[in-house]
Design a protein that fits this description.
Blueprint: H1 2-17, H2 33-53, H3 62-89, H4 105-123, H5 126-133, H6 142-161, H7 167-188, H8 201-224, H9 231-264
Amino acid sequence: MPGALETLWDHYTWVLESGDPRTDAWILVYSPLPVILLLLLYLLLVLVGPRAMSQRPPLELTGALATYNLGLVLLSGYIFYQFLTVSLLADYSYFCQPVDYSQNELSMRMARVCWWCFFSKAVELLDTVFLVLRKKQEQLTFLHVYHHGTMLLNWWAGVKYVPGGQAFFVGMLNSLVHVFMYLYYGLASLGPRARPYLWWKRHLTILQLGQFVAIAAHASYNLFAECSFPDGFNLAVLLYSLSLIVLFLNFYRQTYLRGRRKKRL
């Protein structure tokens, strides 16, 4: 057992020390333990929250939801703008872009926007808090929990080890999609009066699927191209994107195609 503990400690030390030293001092980056603790608390909320709310009336939270979603529209828009601007100023390749680990202004700016993208994933865990408080348990699906939880962990690894390079493409697409996604959620939080403006939910799902297909294709290309961005990260991005494609296709089928068939019957 002492040998096993020593090996475990050696692995943990490697995780801490092998990251990008430029980002180590940033909030939630140096050690995985705070992020893992946050994920455990998140899963506890998913398990216990609905039971705690079962004997309580649902909270409306209209104002809080509208403010929260508008805030995420603005944050996602800022992140997209930064990814796009820095990639253009630094003449990034959209096919193969290694990480620039230097201290120059543009590489640090790219690393910072990667951190903001990671931070936004921590903020987005509040999506689930609002669902629990509003007693929307039917929306606490495996897709919802898996997507929110794993995004946080994935972006932690990105900021810790590869804050830039090919990661910018993932963050740029994802933040753009989130502008539209949280705009939709913000309108939906206003209740029945906003219903005429929510006709584009299906198109939003297609947009989400499109980003995962693009990210999977991008990662696949870089697995076979001669690019110095780590293949391990490209493979992880590819497999993760494929898992989301499967889950979102199932959501699309359940939400749009099955409902249409029932109406015909």
